[in-house]
Amino acid sequence: MAHQTTPSSQKALMMELKSLQEQPVEGFRITLVEESDLYNWEVAIFGPPNTLYEGGYFKAHIKFPIDYPYSPPTFRFLTKMWHPNIYENGDVCISILHPPVDDPQSGELPSERWNPTQNVRTILLSVISLLNEPNTFSPANVDASVMFRKWRDSKGKDKEYAEIIRKQVLSTAAEAERDGVKVPTTLAEYCVQTRVPSQDSSSDLLYDDLYDDDMEEEDDDEDESEMESGGEEGQCEEHDGELS
């Protein structure tokens, strides 16, 4: 069937896909865009309960390079997302997806960037963490970042950011219905069918304190987080002028 020797990246992706199907990450569904193409995956993300994204059904594509896992994939939301670290075209700006080059100006350590020990599972956990804990120091969407900070600093009294997110969540209901998907809205529903393996206990970060910030020590009574995948919310790089 294969015209040439199967690239090692195909074997790696096949193993990862099998692992994610057998031991899914909570709140995610993974499928191939086309069965014959291992390099393009479709991701459905359920918004975690007890967050602004509760009840949401968000779709994204992960596109892998031919030399994966030595180079990182790209992660692009297909669903419209208003978020400090998501570009207007849906691309996610996150350290773990940046190539492992030494770039002092970025503010990122090479250890925070992609390396071949990372995988789709760590990417998914980093993305869900980023949704709830945006990095506002080098945003991909400046307006969303300003709005998020107002919401966070006002302890939710400034509702503009939250209202935009909730509207986006509500707008995803039609797509979920089209796909025949029942979106979980309680922790029990969210966790039961897709119990994450014990080594990925970092799924606790789904319920991190939404007001937490690197520059401020605000211990709200909501919860305290332990970030396993440290640094995944790093600086954004130049993005071909997609933001004005």
TrEMBL record:
Protein name: E2 ubiquitin-conjugating enzyme
Gene Ontology terms for molecular function: ATP binding; ubiquitin conjugating enzyme activity
Pathway membership: Protein modification; protein ubiquitination
Catalysed reaction equations from the record: S-ubiquitinyl-[E1 ubiquitin-activating enzyme]-L-cysteine + [E2 ubiquitin-conjugating enzyme]-L-cysteine = [E1 ubiquitin-activating enzyme]-L-cysteine + S-ubiquitinyl-[E2 ubiquitin-conjugating enzyme]-L-cysteine
Keywords: ATP-binding, Nucleotide-binding, Phosphoprotein, Transferase, Ubl conjugation pathway
Top-level taxonomic group: Eukaryota
SUPFAM superfamilies noted in UniProt: UBC-like
Family affiliation: Belongs to the ubiquitin-conjugating enzyme family.
